[in-house]
TrEMBL record:
Domain L-type lectin-like, first and last residues per copy: 28-252
Its membrane topology: Single-pass type I membrane protein
Signal peptide start and end residues: 1-20
Domain of life: Eukaryota
Any GO CC annotation of this UniProt entry: endoplasmic reticulum-Golgi intermediate compartment
GO biological process terms held by the UniProt record: endoplasmic reticulum to Golgi vesicle-mediated transport
The name this protein goes by in its record: L-type lectin-like domain-containing protein
Annotated InterPro entries: ConA-like_dom_sf, Intracellular_Lectin-GPT, Lectin_leg
One MF term in the entry's GO annotations: D-mannose binding
Keywords, in A-Z order: Membrane, Signal, Transmembrane, Transmembrane helix
Location in the cell: Membrane
Amino acid sequence: MLFLKTGLLVLSAALGLTAAQNNAPSSSITLQTHSLYPPYIDDDLQNRWFDFGGDAIINTNKHVRLTSNRPSQVGYLWSRLPLATLNFEIEFEYNVDGPSGHLFGDGFAMWLAKERASTGPVFGSVNGFDGLGIFFDTYDNERSHKHSFPYVQAMIGDGYKHYENDKDGSSTEAAGCEADFRGKTVVTKARLTYYKNNYLRLELQHEKEDEWTECFKIHDVKLPDQVYLGFTAHTGEISDNHDIISVTTKTLPPIAIEPKHQIPQTGKKPKSSSGGGGFLWFLFKMVAAAGLVGVMFVAYRVYDKSGNMKRF
């Protein structure tokens, strides 16, 4: 029975390893310095870790409204400290809405940039920035794009490249996706994951609760060593309410470097993420381990019939 016992030990070890992987405790840490929740302000009407400015309005029960549904507004929300961690995840809940109609805009942006709290023409912040800008654009300026709006777009700034408003940033786009995030009844969220010297990924929730879709994934993104986390918005002749409801920033443990064969997704609808991969891998391990046990058992029976094994 030695072969059979060995096979059972292999099977048990495989199942135990899978269970341990599926239930491994997370080593991520929430960074209070870059997280924001209601009521947003303290007794002095300030926030210890964030600055608000421009036309931003704080409703302590609901949101930080970067711009109201009024023309020519600019509002911002910026962390006071740089984000000094190599790998991180930023998940934020937002809401973009206003009166029904065909014209609304212009949108809002999420930033990881070296310069903070300065207003400008790029969704309320400065042009020629150094770092990452992710633009939630609701208005089509050029009218000749192959994709529809609303549109989510990433731009990697080096301090010299300029975002072109009249072209909706098409000449400096690193990746993007169509995403109908405006005026939704479902909670709208975004989740940015960054591993230094590995990849940057943006996922969105805007169709169903707890259903995330991958907007884009880019390899070899190099951010400046010290970046500030920010959110800005602006309106022109047309307008919208642009609200930030909550922000949660976590550190992430290092992971293995991924192969760099993925092509950034540009101008396409986001792909739905699936949770089936882990189960299939678990099933594969079970089948492989069971097959190993079967082979060992057959070998044991054949060896036993040959009379070369002594019985006890």
